[in-house]
Amino acid sequence: MDLRRKLATLGRPAAAAPAEPAGSERESALSKLRREMAEILERPPTVAGPRPELRVDELPFSRVETESGPLYVRRERLAPSHHVGTIPVDAALAAKPELLSLLALDPSLAETDVARALFLDTETTGLGGSGTIAFVVGLALFEEGSLVIEQLLLRTPSEERPLLEHVGRLVEGASLLVTFNGKAFDVPTLSGRFVLNRLPVPPPRPHLDLLHVARRIHRARIRSCTLKSLESEILGFVRDADIDGGDVAPRYGHYLRTGDESALVPVVEHNAWDVVSMAALVGLYGEPLGTLHAEDLVGLSRTFRRARALDRAEEAAELSVRRGAGAEGLRARGEIAKARGDLRRALEDFEELARSVDDERARLELAKLYEHWVKSPEQALAVTALGTGEAPVAHQKRRARLEKKVRAGRR
Hints:
By secondary structure, the protein is an alpha+beta fold. It has helices at residues 3-8, 24-42, 97-104, 160-172, 182-196, 210-222, 227-235, 248-258, 265-285, 294-306, 310-322, 327-340, 343-356, 360-372, 377-385, 392-410, and strands at 62-66, 69-77, 83-84, 87-88, 117-124, 134-143, 146-153, 176-179, 207-209. It is elongated.
């Protein structure tokens, strides 16, 4: 029964109940209530009717009719010469998947086709959970050697299904998915929306999450590894008048309440910057030795070492030292030489490191090399006495063992 019919029954007695005499006061109150409710029903809603069509002068989206409803799409093809700072976006096409695999510590990336990568970033109504909706989905892919940006706008949450279906088709056709923190946020958020809309979740694809790569390579130098920090500190690009991440969801709420499309323009621009910068980062990481800062080469060498690519690790560490990485370059080169079994080189690097800085970790490595490779407990004991950073029990145990070896050698 609708509200109008319910209002019409006000004051009627129940069918089985005897009728009560209606007093004048009671009739007056009921009549007043009916009039007030009728007035409320006649009032126009705060946002009347369906959402107005998007205007090209505000948001450059085109409406595409699908079987599941309207889809709002913006496409832009970038010139092959387009740069993000110093890095051309089409450099991603030359990125070596085996290198990306090593930096991501993910062997599944080694056989991917970077030319068929799908770059993905979302702007959402929250920070996660079943109620979080992606209202702008930024995508980028290469077509005939050019990077094409494709953005999807959720004009109203009721039109989510065609947006998800479109994303699903693109993911299914991709060889590689590239995101920035997408493993923890974007992909789980979208997957949850597929489930809630009773749609099949797209098949898993090898996934390069650039946030993890960036932290391994750059965190020792720039600390903050947000995408905007990487743009300014690594790529040499500073965004003009970009919005803060905390303003994204409120702007969509304002749009839904008022239909004010201008509130979403900065969000759309922010999203486009994100996906384009991801392509530039793939180009950088796909051939990193020629462009990285000396300190970042240290992070690169250690990442290669974790991936057991020791030849590449040695090359990166050697280059970091030549470019002036200082103590950390020496340490990385010494650690990699030791892992390769080149103990002479490791000893030289740790000796030079111990001479140049007061470093307990370097002295610990020297103590081990002097004791077990040089077979000189006297040198090992002298270094140990200066402090090795070990726990007191371990330090005392090492010292006692070395003293015993020194005494035995003097007999």
